[in-house]
Amino acid sequence: MEITSVESFPVEIPLESPVSFSNRTITYRDHAITYVRTDEGVEGVGYSLGYEGAHLIADAVEDMLEPLLVGEDPRDTERLWRKMFDGNVQIGRQGILLRAISSVDIALWDAKAKAAGQPLYKLLGGYADAVPAYASGGYYRDDKGHEGLRAEMQRYLDEGHDIVKMKVGRRSVAEEVERVEAVRDEIGPDRTLLLDANGVWSSANEAIRACRAFEPYDPYFIEEPVMIDKVQAMAELNEAIAYPVATGELEGTRYNFARLYDDGAANVLQADATVCGGITEWLKIAHHAAAYDIELAPHYNWNLHASLVGSIENGLFVEYFYRDMDVKVFDDIVENPLSPDDTGSIPLPQEPGHGVQLDKDALETFRPA
Asked: Is the pTM above the cut of 0.90?
């Protein structure tokens, strides 16, 4: 089997109204979509969230990666990952080029699993047939007060979730404590509450002050309390508070994740296969973490990450966004998106490949002119 072409292009899906987290407001979501096609008619698809740069990721795929891949066997995922990474190491160790590699690698694994006639999670290890999912939300909108926040969380409980996540850090510590208190009161003492600050605090001291104020409400973790490169600050916070730091959604490659382990910066890792280098690299991160008894709870992309979490022994849970909350909208271009059942778990797809089939008519609708 040989790769005959690699195609990549951006899509932009608008939100119905602007939504904010601690340090940013967004009006649309863009993704880079990548197809790897072969001479035997097997087609693999990959993708990555663009953060307004999906067109740059797509250009990197076609300009920098396709020439390295045409004529290669798509099943040689280990060798092709190294070829893509080493072949662009001067400009591609992080950021746009690594997201491009990620989208291609995901497509290669999709093709590989299809060629093997196996669901991806079975091909990778088959640890579980369903994985727990938490309901992610608690974003900021201009017209959303405490009652709106409570109603959102109650909706997640009604759907069957025992784990919910909310954003923190956009407002003063006192105001954020009130928001966290309201959510804890709404969900009760026995359910799991996750907090996400999106790197808003500038120092360990500032993060420690805020996170200690949340301690009475028993958070399970605080996600991205400071920017991802402030590993020492994360380590100081992780040591100083009564609940752990989680991080990694913007981190790339096993080498950076190894530093997080070694420096004691996080107890939960959130490696995103669309960011860190694809499935090939995600597996290395996960298996290395298992040696430290560290669990993975990947960021976003549940349609893919459910299968990855279901393939390893140290998977914790996956992040899920309800489409009508108008925060993550990728399901608009997925033919049969995964969703939790009434127990808050996601059954894994059983068809060959990773199971993420994209609606080509919808892709055309959302391609920029």
From this structure: yes
